[in-house]
Specification:
The chain is an alpha+beta fold. It has six helices and nine strands, in the order H-H-H-H-H-E-H-E-E-E-E-E-E-E-E. It has two domains: 68 residues, 434 Repressor (Amino-terminal Domain); 127 residues, Umud Fragment, subunit A, CATH 2.10.109.10. Strands 2-1-3-4-9-5-6-7-8 form a nine-stranded mixed sheet. Helix 1 crosses helix 3 and helix 2 packs across helix 3. The chain is elongated and about 55 Å long. About 3% of the residues have low confidence.
Amino acid sequence: MKSNEHLAKRVKEARSRAGLKQVELAQEAGISSATVQKLESGESGGSIRTLNGIANACGVDAAWLSSGSESNAPYTSPENASVLRIAVTNVENIVNWQDWADWTMPPTTTEWIRISVPKDAGSVVALTINNDIMSPELIEGDKAIVALGKKPKHGQIVVAYKTGSKRAFLRQIMLDSATTFLKPTNNRYPIKPINSEYKVIGVVVSKYQEYN
């Protein structure tokens, strides 16, 4: 078995999910067709820049592409997922964006990523994580992929804010008791009971990591 055989299979899978030919992937990722061919044949392992470019072009997680990490694996059924180009912002901006009608051109963004998301996710945005409150599920530098307006289920990570505040936050929502709680996954931070003053903007449906 070639040392890069598993990587080769993931590159082929990513390209297939995105519906790209080898030459199209090369153009999207800013690499040569020969590089794509070598990766898919297992002749090359690829640089950090190359793998990040391929991941972004195909809409898959770069950490999964490079290592095969199941925690960052793309959705297993391509029929139930779409590769979208989505805007990246931070938690503070999302409160200002929540009523924006055209999510193909949201305000105040200069960063975009392509990623595979469930077809039923609706309007989706990526939030850059800049603290450790939701570690280890979401660590600094990750991008949380948020389905806006999606009704949360018990145990899901949500984006919420308090009425009158312009600052949103990420927490795990706990719904299986008389009181609803918003819980950090890092136990160094306090659990917060919530009431009708708190609004949930959306639900985290996946995450995106760059390979480094």
